[in-house]
Design brief:
two-stranded antiparallel ribbon, 8-stranded mixed beta sheet, alpha/beta, globular, 16% strand, 10 strands, Rossmann fold
Length: 328
């Protein structure tokens, strides 16, 4: 419970995780049926990148600001979703997050909750298509949305989101952010318990995002166990689990555990900015996807390649990979 994402918001790992998350949600929305989305480690909302904590690490400079500067066509849906998820007015100085109701247009304006971001993102899927934005281009890179605002920006009226955050201050900030939004529920509860308590959803379709802070050495074991629990309770759901890559041994052990767990139809997408040799440094990250939507393995390489081109600095060992861990 010591982790605070305000120090790391908008870093390269956020960009990788959220670019793939946007693709997964759009793919699920090809069908009109309602979706349920569960974010197990939700955080506080929207993060002010001018905040002292963000400036202390400078991670957004090597993350979302590089992606904005490059603006590759493959990442246009991701950038459109990020822009649509951000407040239209600047965050008050000293505030990590701003209230949802005060910051975004009413639903009738085609904004959040009416699928506004989803339509924006879908409108720029073709290479070379202009990137439409909901807010002004001015100030891009001054704030970054956590997963809940990004997901909320993509929801259709029939979809809903449940967010779990254990830390009291972060959970309170997220409640203030969403206010009385009827499509979002915020729970201050343990993520691993929530997999049992909130699954399966009544919609029978959806996505579970599991994004632990990895504060201790047991987190990979908890993640493998959590995936097994979620798959047993929500067998039709898409499960997306983020993990850090510092050095290879823990990642290999985790992927082997998943392969031996009995889970079916599992793919791991990875991005690394340098050879993963230093166990004290975040050298890359991965997103493991259970039940990936159709064409994920065909389209994810373009996203990973664009992320590497945008975020990489030419260090030795820089690259990406997409590997199947378990067959259908």
């Amino acid at each position: 419970m010591n982790y605070r994402h305000a120090f790391h918001a908008g870093n390269f790992a956020d960009c990788m995780k959220h670019a793939l998350l946007v693709w997964l949600l759009q793919a699920l929305q090809r069908k009109p049926n309602a979706l349920f989305v569960l974010d197990t480690h939700a955080g506080a909302g929207v993060y002010d990148l001018a905040d002292e904590r963000a400036r202390r690490t400078g991670e957004a400079d090597a993350g979302i600001r590089r992606v904005y500067a490059a603006s590759p066509a493959a990442l246009a849906p991701y950038l459109a979703a990020v822009d649509a998820a951000l407040p239209r007015s600047p965050l008050p100085r000293g505030e990590t997050t701003a209230p949802h109701a005060a910051s975004f247009p009413p639903l009738a304006e085609g904004g959040r909750g009416a699928g506004g971001a989803r339509e924006l993102a879908q409108g720029c899927e073709r290479p070379g298509h202009p990137l439409p934005l909901s807010p002004s281009r001015e100030g891009r890179g001054d704030a970054y949305p956590g997963s809940p605002p990004l997901i909320r920006a993509l929801l259709r009226p029939q979809d809903r989101l449940a967010c779990c955050e254990l830390h009291p201050e972060e959970a309170a900030a997220l409640r203030r952010f969403f206010g009385s939004d009827r499509q979002v529920a915020v729970h201050q509860r343990d993520a691993w318990e929530a997999l049992r308590g909130l699954l399966p959803p009544k919609e029978k379709r959806g996505l579970v995002l599991i994004d632990p802070p990895f504060e201790d050495r047991q987190e990979f074991d908890r993640l493998a166990a959590g995936l097994t629990t979620a798959a047993a309770r929500f067998p039709n759901g898409v499960l997306a689990a983020w993990y850090p890559i510092k050095h290879r041994a823990p990642v290999r052990a985790f992927l082997d555990a998943v392969a031996d767990s009995g889970l079916r139809d599992v793919v791991a997408a990875e991005l690394w900015l340098r050879e993963p040799l230093d166990p004290a440094r975040l050298n890359g990250c991965g997103l493991l996807v259970v039940n990936p939507p159709w064409e994920f393995e065909t389209e994810a390489p373009a996203l990973l390649g664009a992320l590497r081109e945008s975020l990489g600095s030419g260090e030795e060992g820089e690259g990406w990979d997409l590997q199947r861990i378990a067959d259908e």
